[in-house]
Write a structure and sequence with these properties.
Blueprint (H helix, E strand, L loop, with lengths): L10 E9 L2 E8 L2 E8 L10 H5 L4 E7 L15 H14 L5 E6 L1 H12 L4 E7 L25 E2 L2 H8 L10 H10 L1 E4 L2 E4 L3 H9 L9 H6 L4 E6 L19 H4 L3 E6 L6 H4 L1 H11 L1
Parallel strand pairs: 3-4, 3-5, 5-6, 6-10, 10-11
Antiparallel strand pairs: 1-2, 2-4, 7-9, 8-9
Helix pairs in contact: 2-3, 4-5
């Protein structure tokens, strides 16, 4: 099967009314239903999925920029995890998404579970790629120290400068170059005469800080998911209490918590599965279809 041509660009749709003061950006590629609904990780954006979507040319694909990310609206902190699930369910309702394969990476996996619980008709199956769903006891622990996030460089002269700065540094050195290009190209937005990160450091830090809050615990929703769920999990485990962004945040027994869960472990793999192994992700999506 041939890929989508690299010249094929998605339509950008802006969805209002999901939350006060927040307009949500959705990138849509044409194709047949049932659609594929993509949700990205913290500090990323919907266009990080471009290279995987190119491998799935027959399907309608929708990739959402979460609030505070990409071309979506930016509120000041705090950023609560349940809001990402509500936003995704609202976007799916606004665009009449039904019987989709819901595909979420990291924070996006958490949001996909919440959205599927809030609006069950959205998804007929879920692919959760190293989702940020911790062991249950983690949601009763102190917040992570995310202060180092606030020191991220926020201004850049161009996407090319950002790309050259990152290409030989961890974790980006292990990414496919095309995906790193997409990450940089769509990870900056204009702010006056400057280009700044599309997910401001204070937004990213707030997301990590609130990730272990009791209200972020998604296990009631996990138990309610009747659809088949595949958890594609990185083998590089995170140490308890650490915020190692390259290690897996996923509870090792998460798949067993779903009524119809399937666990797939990629030994030695880092958290950035879609960026490092896009062909493997596309293969899993085709299997689910």
């Amino acid at each position: 099967m041939e890929n989508r041509p690299a010249s094929e660009s998605p339509d950008l749709k802006l969805v209002s009314g999901c939350a006060a003061g927040v307009e949500l950006a959705v990138w849509e590629w044409p194709g047949a239903d049932p659609p594929l609904l993509f949700a990205h990780a913290t500090s990323f954006h919907g266009r990080c999925w471009d290279q995987i979507i190119r491998m799935l040319p027959e399907r309608r694909c929708l990739a959402v920029d979460a609030r505070g990310h990409g071309r979506s609206g930016k509120l000041g902190p705090p950023y609560r995890w349940r809001d990402f699930g509500r936003d995704l369910a609202c976007v799916a309702g606004h665009l009449a998404v039904r019987d989709a394969i819901g595909i979420g990476h990291s924070m996006g996996g958490h949001a996909t579970v919440l959205a599927a619980s809030l609006r069950p008709e959205t998804c007929r199956a879920l692919l959760l790629i190293d989702p940020t769903i911790f062991p249950p006891e983690t949601y009763r622990t102190p917040p992570f120290d995310a202060s180092f996030i606030l020191r991220r460089r926020a201004e850049w002269s161009s996407p090319e400068e950002m790309f050259e700065r990152f290409r030989d540094r961890a974790p980006f050195a292990a990414w496919k170059l095309e995906i790193l290009h997409d990450y940089c190209r769509f990870g900056l937005v204009a702010n006056g005469e400057n280009l700044v990160l599309a997910c401001p450091p204070e937004v990213e830090a707030s997301i990590y800080t609130n990730s272990t809050a009791p209200e972020s615990d998604p296990y009631a929703e996990v138990a309610s998911i009747a659809q088949p769920v595949t958890v594609l999990r990185a083998g590089q485990a995170r140490k308890p209490g650490s915020l190692d962004l390259a290690a897996s945040p996923t509870a090792p027994d998460l798949a067993a918590k779903f009524p119809h869960g399937r666990d797939v472990v990629l030994p030695g793999q880092s958290h950035y599965i879609p960026m490092e192994l896009p062909e493997r992700v596309a293969e899993e999506i085709r299997r689910m279809l």
